[in-house]
Amino acid sequence: MPNRAIEIHDSVLAAVSFSQGEAKLHFSSVYIHQSEGVPLRDAGSGWVQEAVLRIHDAKMEGAFSEFPVDLADGQTQMGENILDNEIPVPLRHKGAFELRLQAMWHGQEVVSFAGSGAELELLGEPKYVEEFRP
Known about the structure:
Elements: E1 3-19, E2 22-35, E3 44-56, E4 59-61, E5 69-78, E6 81-84, E7 86-89, E8 92-103, E9 110-132
Antiparallel strand pairs: 1-2, 1-5, 1-7, 2-3, 3-9, 4-9, 5-6, 5-8, 8-9
């Protein structure tokens, strides 16, 4: 199976909810780069898909003024590992986890989430968008 990663830029955050200490980030569309090499760097294809990211023992800093939010940029940190503009696929991480998301519009608002772990669930079928050539 090819290597995959979500490119935060070009993804759309539809809603954020909290329940029993868990943050649930619902993305109406994530842009997934798929490659035989390194996703987001090497040639491959682009796909969109609905997704839910759950962050355990979550704390949130900042807020988006309205939803949905077209995302411009972001960063994922798992322990000491920092990924710019990327969320790994698959994702099931136990340990320190941080996600920073920046809105494309609305003054480029920035919201950060921190927790003790995270897991990503892709929903439905991916839809092909384009070929990617660096």
